[in-house]
Design a protein that fits this description.
The protein contains 1 helix and 10 strands. By secondary structure, the chain is mainly beta. Strands 4-5-1-7-8 form a 5-stranded antiparallel beta sheet, with no helix packed on it. The protein is globular. It starts with 10 loop residues before the first strand and ends in a 7-residue tail after the last helix. The model has no long low-confidence stretch (mean pLDDT 89).
Length: 177
Amino acid sequence: MSSDSQGMGKAEVRLKWDPSPWNRQPHHLDIIAATYSADDFYGQPVYVVHYDSRSPDGTINMSRHSQTGQGFGYVETMTLELDRLASSFSRVVVGVAIHQNSGPKTFGDISNAGVLVVEGYKELLQNDFAQIAGSTAGTVAEFTRDAAGAWEFHEMIRGFDSDPVLFTAEMGSAARP
């Protein structure tokens, strides 16, 4: 949780993984964010942001995207400008999904996978997906707005066994599927 009484302003989610061996199909992972209204905190997302989209108001977007994991360090980045989100939003859930185009893959099948959540230079979360190694998708973070309007960070490591499309519909559910 953020210790700043003003709440969080801007957070960044970074993702890394090693490329697949040269004789196999590339591993393709994606950061996904789903926004929820105060009226439907655990319901259907108002909108979802992923590699091929951004939020309608530009407050959540992908600044870096990889389809193979090639590169140094974190190869995919999503920025969330929480302080600019409309007051009608009270929750944002962020997760990671593995594309299943070339057969089933879980986090345990992907080497050196990891996620990092930062606010400026402050590290909020670093995780290697080991506790959800058997899952094909997983949530990593939840940002919620308190009664005063300040945003707070909560670690939310939950595994799911679904493809990216189904994951976007269930990632914000109240209980583990």
